[in-house]
Backbone:
């Protein structure tokens, strides 16, 4: 056995079951370990951006990390755009990047680069194996860091000689990964008091608040208080379809978003941060919270926002669920008219199977598809959280697995 096998076995013990790979010479011992050891599915991707995008989609649907295996600094550089989307979506990913053998780095071979620095902008944590004895412990730390509690990309640099070493470090058992931070009871009480005092409150949802349990609790709160339900424009995963609560998705363009929120005197932030415009425009504000509205934070991406919403609903005595809309009915299509986003949405409403996953790589035109399937077949909608296009098909690969 060589050290890379200990690393793979340790990752399997942490619940990492899939590795999206685009390896090279420096990663061959990791490839051999993946081939020898049962328990981790290795998926070869023909471009690094496919590997990182697939890891993003997998993490959003599974709620736990897959790992990648990429080739040196240029390899991870090719995958940065979709790591950016994962970072902005708070998606757990263990991003393993091979490097030259330690003694070879000083020779400055053509593919030599500062791998750690290349990883850093898109990672919440960057680690490096400095000795073969560290491969298992650093694998555990990478998994731990991917869970946060503010989840994200944990990048681990693995020199080739640390992978091929016959040192055989111990295979480490499973750890309990970090859980989201609990929201304090006094915070929940303060938010409840603010809601009771407001005349036109908005409950602004993001991240895990847009999953089934979070939406149900938010619906109870809205039913009891009259608060309007909005969600962030680009949420990592939205549970949608008939029988689910459907917040309004904030408009992409700042002027439209300001119009939608106009008149609100209170913004409760649940799982996200206060809304901002996607880009700056001359003479237009970047912050989209209405003038004069108070902003109160229930919790952010690192917090257990689902439990916080349930606690808030209970504190308000909000037991009645929000009524659900009837199943959406598709209007007639006119085949002679040009294809447009609305027609795509209507087609999905008619033909999409239940429990589909839609990976939206369209940014703006997807906003025209989105409302048509609001009360259609049950599905999950994965948004382009970082705005880096090219994620849709890779993300779909990971989501399917």
Residues:
């Amino acid at each position: 056995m060589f050290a890379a096998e200990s690393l793979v076995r340790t990752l399997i013990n942490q619940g990492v079951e899939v590795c999206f790979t685009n390896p090279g010479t420096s990663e061959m011992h990791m490839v051999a370990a993946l081939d020898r050891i049962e328990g981790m599915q290795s998926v070869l991707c023909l471009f690094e951006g496919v590997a990182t995008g697939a890891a993003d989609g997998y993490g959003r649907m599974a709620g736990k990390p897959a790992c990648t295996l990429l080739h040196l600094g240029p390899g991870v550089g090719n995958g940065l755009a979709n790591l950016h989307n994962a970072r902005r979506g708070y998606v757990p990913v263990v991003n393993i990047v091979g490097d030259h053998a330690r003694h070879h780095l000083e020779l400055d071979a053509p593919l030599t680069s500062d791998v750690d620095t290349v990883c850093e902008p898109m990672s919440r944590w960057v680690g490096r194996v400095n000795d073969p004895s560290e491969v298992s412990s650093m694998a555990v730390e990478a998994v731990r860091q991917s869970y946060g509690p503010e989840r994200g990309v944990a990048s681990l640099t693995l020199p080739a000689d640390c992978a091929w070493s016959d040192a055989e470090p111990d295979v480490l058992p499973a750890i309990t990964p970090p859980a989201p931070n609990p929201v304090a009871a006094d915070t929940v009480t303060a938010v409840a008091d603010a809601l009771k005092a407001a005349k036109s409150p908005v409950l602004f949802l993001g991240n895990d608040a847009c999953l089934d349990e979070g939406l149900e609790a938010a619906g109870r709160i809205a039913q009891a208080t009259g608060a309007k339900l909005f969600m962030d424009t680009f949420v990592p995963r939205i549970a949608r379809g008939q029988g689910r609560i459907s917040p309004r998705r904030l408009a992409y363009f700042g002027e439209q978003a300001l119009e939608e929120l106009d008149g609100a005197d209170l913004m409760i932030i649940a799982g996200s941060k206060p809304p901002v415009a996607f880009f700056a425009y001359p003479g237009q504000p970047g912050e989209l919270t209405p003038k004069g509205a108070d902003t109160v934070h229930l919790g952010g991406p690192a917090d257990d926002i689902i439990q916080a919403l349930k606690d808030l609903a209970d504190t308000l005595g909000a037991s009645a669920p929000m009524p659900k809309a009837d199943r959406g009915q598709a209007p007639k299509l006119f085949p002679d008219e040009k294809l447009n986003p609305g027609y795509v949405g209507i087609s999905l409403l008619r033909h999409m199977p239940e429990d589909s996953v839609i990976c939206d790589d369209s940014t703006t035109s997807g906003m025209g598809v989105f409302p048509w399937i609001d009360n259609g077949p049950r599905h999950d909608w994965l948004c382009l959280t970082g705005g880096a296009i090219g994620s849709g098909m890779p993300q779909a690969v990971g989501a399917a697995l």
Summary: The chain has three domains: 3-164, 185-315, 341-400. The mean pLDDT is 96. The CA atoms of residues 252 and 280 lie 12 Å apart. The longest helix spans residues 48-62.
